[in-house]
Specification:
globular, 6 strands, alpha+beta, single chain
Length: 99
Amino acid sequence: MNVRRVQVESLDQFRIMAQRPIDAHILLNDGTPRSSKRIQYQHNRNGRHWWMYESIGDSERYYTERQFASSTNIVEAIGKAALYVELEIEEIRNILTQE
């Protein structure tokens, strides 16, 4: 398994990446992980929804798109170039063809 850490550059890009559960990491300026989460995005007739699991507190939560933006630090981390995901090389190729 060949896994790479990839910086998330936009929420739109993250939506594509997170169409299946994905491990996301918020890093401090020195590259040290601040937090890790497993996140998945779903878009269906009921709207846009995010599922997030944090292993540290063993917490699981579902968010609407609006709640996800206002109640989590994910969008802020994207804006600060601090959100990274772990992807296999083949997954990176698939994402690049979808953008």
